[in-house]
Amino acid sequence: MFRLALQLGLSRGLLSRGLCTRSRGPFDDKDEKWAEFKKKLQVTWPGGSWEPFVDTSHLPPEHADVVIVGGGVMGWSVAYWLKRLEARKNAIRVLVVERDPTYSRASTRLSIGDIRQQFSVPQNIQLSLFSIEFLRNINEYLAVSDEPPLDIQFSPSGYLLLASEENASQMEHNVKVQRQEGAKVCLLSPEQLKNKFPWINTEGIALASYGLENEGWFDPWCLLQGLRRKAMSMGVYHSHGEVTELVSSVRPMVTSRGEQVNIKRIYEVHVKMNNSLEYQPVECAIVINAAGAWSGQLAELAGIGMGPPGTLQGTRLPVEPRKRYVYVWHCPQGPGLEAPLLTDISGAYFRREGLGGHYLGGCSPTEEEEPDTQDLEVDHNFFQEKVWPRLAQRVPSFSSLKVQSAWASYDDYNTFDQNGIVGPHPLVSNMYFATGFSGHGVQHAPGVGRAVAEILLNGHFNTIDLNLFSFNRFYLEEKVLEGNII
After folding, report:
1. For the chain, is the Cβ count within 10 Å smaller at the N or the C terminus?
2. Does the pLDDT value for residue 128 go beyond 80?
3. Residue 80 CB burial class (10 angstroms; 0-12, 13-18, ≥19)
4. Taking the complete model, does pTM exceed 0.85, yes or no?
């Protein structure tokens, strides 16, 4: 419809200047002249009522090669790398769909933006090393002509992990793996720890590991906006709306074990516009599930996990929202500018926030303490009862802290093994995952985005082999055990 209006010589500028809002113009003085004008236009398109002046710019395109569901840092990273690695310019039409245009509830915006190398799984360490190189050289990757450079505000203050006697040998093993992968990490005895950080109470500590470089924190909102700005400058489409339906074709197959399965292929994504009953069907070849905490719900729309229990068809995507609290407090007598991001043996953590004696931190709840995820309300009693006592025990000066603010966010929590899911689904052949990172997705987004783009464009991983994080491990019950989940 809009194309026909253009053929009649009516530009977008004419429409936006108010031809339909009855401002002064050649057809606005008398209703009958306006009606006559519409009648003449309708002659060119017979067969019913027609309204040529409908703004459809808010709608996604009707066709896309790749639809990425989720406009957080993970989704935009995939979009960026698809365009960066495409064989020729404009070879791939990519659409990113985000349901929250304000990002007020987005995990990226609410993240504390930490990055560390101190994992136990080599692939996680490699992702961190890739990300830190990306962040340190962010304007070489994401610079846009005539736009100001990005200031990621990277603070290289390191991570300090503490271990009890029970966990000391595991920490030694983890550091050995980290060093083999090229990470700069050292081990500290309780005496060395006290000498370096005299404000720490070393009671109960048998060993500590400390990142000497390439660890710290950054501005995750800046990373998101940088990826988004760059991807859109490369031709990526974006739409604000919610994916409500995935339309698939089905082809039955028999496995080598004689089991009959249905292979699905999504060919259309329905995007419902915000605050409207209107939706746009988008024909597509590939769907990327980067919906974060809501990835499990999107997988169910594709029929994943809806088959008989114990079968591949009945294996669900084990990702669900988990609410996490972050508290900000003031303590002038606190550790000061040299404070790293410290993770205690109790699970409590904190880091410096700015330069004025402010700190932020929290603690993940136990399974029995998991809060309701219906909203993002903060439980201040959780800090008083679970976080503060642990912090004050480890850092005595925190006994006089004063909480100033707090917020809550959602983790895309993988209930199976708390590690990411990357790559295709075995039965929904054109749905790919980039989700389930359980709190470390923001820091690993640059590397995961590239990995997903590589497997889509080349059929395999090139930079970092992430086959370990495939969906198949849920059906095979093969957990990827990460010893440093924080």
Report:
1. N
2. yes
3. buried
4. yes
